[in-house]
Amino acid sequence: MSRRVSAIDIGSNAIRMMVADLSETAPFLHIDKKFRAPVRLGHDVFTSGSIGHDVMEVAKATFRRFAETNQKMQVQKCRAVATSACREAKNRQDFVKAIKEVSGIEIEIIDGTEEGRLIHLAVRKEVDLDGKKTMLIDIGGGSVEVTFSQGPKMIATKSFPMGTVRVLENLAKRKMNESHLNIIMGEFLAELGEHIYQNVDHDPVDFAIGTGGNLECLGQLKVQLLKRTPSTFITLAELTEIIDRLRALSIRDRIEKLGLRTDRADVIVPAAVLVQTIMRQAETEKIVIPAVGLRDGLIWSMF
């Protein structure tokens, strides 16, 4: 007996949906379809504090399509959650209400701890964590969640307001560019360093785990730029090499020569530098990329 469910992740850089079948017998979860709409809520929220009219209209149209998909694919239950950008938007309740009116879909605005818990749930189903101490890094558009696990048990999680879209807006506001990224990172190092130090001081991590679209993209870039496989993990040395190669290319070149999407080409270097910074702080040499994220965690939460 299986039932069809869908999960919607309303992030700061995009809105993503996944439709899956849940079954009481193995393999328990079968993914039917994934969708991604490049709706950058973070641009408005991190510059003006609210979701603007134009972005609101695009989001409404996206949710109309998602509601039609739910109907067409006979989805029995849909869970939609909003993260960093919505958490901070002054008009978040108007947004939630507008989406409900046009699509019938109810949005939950979740905090960073719940976000970390759901992503950890997805990772736990995909990566064997038994007997390992791990650090999970989820790079979003508005925030970064850093979660520590001892075996499959989550022991600490913290959300930092240093997501990729937020970093871009911060650079633009201060008339800086990518070459100034380390200045922005430096402003978060004390708080980030404290969280890492508290959790790895006497017990270092065996490896890091990276989630989010940018991490998956970095795995593919390892194959494309460095001609090394597999794409499912990156060493710190390889990450540094990828950053150097990307920095040598303009955003236009990243789109034309590497085939990156427009809304990936401008955030990929901030994402890579964030991961590099966190790995250096934790003194870990390897990051595993399981290609799961918040949507997968939402699906499992309905199991």
Describe the structure concisely.
This protein is an alpha/beta fold and 303 residues long. The chain has helices at 41-48, 53-72, 84-88, 92-103, 112-126, 164-173, 181-200, 213-226, 236-247, 251-256, 262-265, 268-282, 294-301; strands spanning 2-10, 15-23, 29-37, 77-82, 107-109, 133-139, 144-150, 153-160, 207-211, 233-235, 286-288. InterPro entries: ATPase_NBD (IPR043129), GppA/Ppx_hydrolase (IPR050273), Ppx_GppA_N (IPR003695).
Do you know the CATH architecture of the largest domain?
Answer: 2-Layer Sandwich
Biggest sheet layout: 6 strands, mixed
By DSSP (H or I, 4+ residues per run), the number of helices equals 13
Structural class, judged by helices and strands? alpha/beta
Radius of gyration: 19 Å
Shape: globular
* Helical residue percent band: 40-55%
**Number of structurally distinct domains:** 2
Strands, count: 11
Which series of helices and strands comes N to C?
Answer: EEEHHEHHEHEEEHHEHEHHHHEH
Estimate the strand proportion. 15-25%
The CATH topology of the largest domain is what?
Nucleotidyltransferase, domain 5
Q: For the terminal residues, how far apart are their CA atoms?
A: 13 Å
Low-confidence stretches: none
Average pLDDT score = 96
Pfam family, one: Ppx-GppA
Domain Ppx/GppA phosphatase N-terminal: 31-302
Protein name: Ppx/GppA phosphatase N-terminal domain-containing protein
InterPro entries: ATPase_NBD (IPR043129), GppA/Ppx_hydrolase (IPR050273), Ppx_GppA_N (IPR003695)
Describe the structure in your own words.
The chain has 303 residues and is an alpha/beta fold. It has 2 domains: 2-110, ATPase, nucleotide binding domain (Nucleotidyltransferase, domain 5); 128-294, Exopolyphosphatase. Domain 2 (Nucleotidyltransferase, domain 5, 2-Layer Sandwich). Helices cover 49% and strands 23% of the residues. It has a 6-stranded mixed β-sheet with strand order 8-7-6-9-11-10, with helices on both faces. A 5-stranded mixed β-sheet has the order 3-2-1-4-5, sandwiched between helices. A hairpin with a 5-residue loop joins strand 2 and strand 3 (29-37). Helix 1 packs across helix 6 (164-173) and helix 8 (213-226) crosses helix 9 (236-247).
